[in-house]
Amino acid sequence: MSAVLWPEKDPAEELWLTFNYGPALTVGETVSLVNMSVQLKAGVDASPSTFISGMAVVMGDGKVLQFARAGVDQATYLVKCVATTSSGRKLVLAGKVPVREIA
């Protein structure tokens, strides 16, 4: 698995991260459960788990949305989403989010 590199975000930005499982789902299969995690890949942040906020939202089209906020300037976060499908399969998508303060 390789992680997608999302565009840089400013620490003041609050946005939705999108994980698209649609292409991996079979006909009639849906995402039934998700588990989100955050790892600090670069920089310094004493509490990287606070980078994501609230529960993930599962959409009917196979997309999972997770709200991201704050972050520390010069840090890069790996946000990993493990989805369990209606057929019991586990699918993993991840993305790196670099945080850079806009000067």
Q: The CATH topology, please?
A: Immunoglobulin-like
Major sheet: 4 strands, mixed
- List the total number of helices: 0
> Quick check: average pLDDT?
96
Instruction: Supply the number of structural domains.
Output: 1
Beta-strand content estimate: over 45%
- Poorly predicted parts: none
In the CATH scheme, the class would be Mainly Beta
| Gross morphology | elongated
Report strand order across the widest sheet.
1-7-6-3
* Record field, number of beta strands: 7
Order of helices and strands: EEEEEEE
- Can you give the helix content as a percent range? under 10%
| Shape-level CATH architecture | Sandwich
- Measure the end-to-end span: 34 Å
SS content category: mainly beta
Computed over alpha carbons, the radius of gyration is 14 Å
InterPro entries: Gp77-like (IPR056928)
What does this structure look like?
With 103 residues, the protein is an all-beta fold. The chain has a single domain, classed as Sandwich (Immunoglobulin-like), CATH 2.60.40. Helix content is 0%, strand content 52%. The chain has strands at residues 4-5, 14-20, 31-42, 52-58, 63-69, 76-85, 90-98. The strands form two sheets. It has a four-stranded mixed β-sheet with strand order 1-7-6-3, with no helix packed on it. A three-stranded antiparallel β-sheet has the order 2-5-4, with no helix packed on it. A hairpin with a 4-residue loop joins strand 4 (52-58) and strand 5. The chain is elongated, with a radius of gyration of 14 Å. The model has no long low-confidence stretch (mean pLDDT 96). Pfam families: Gp77.
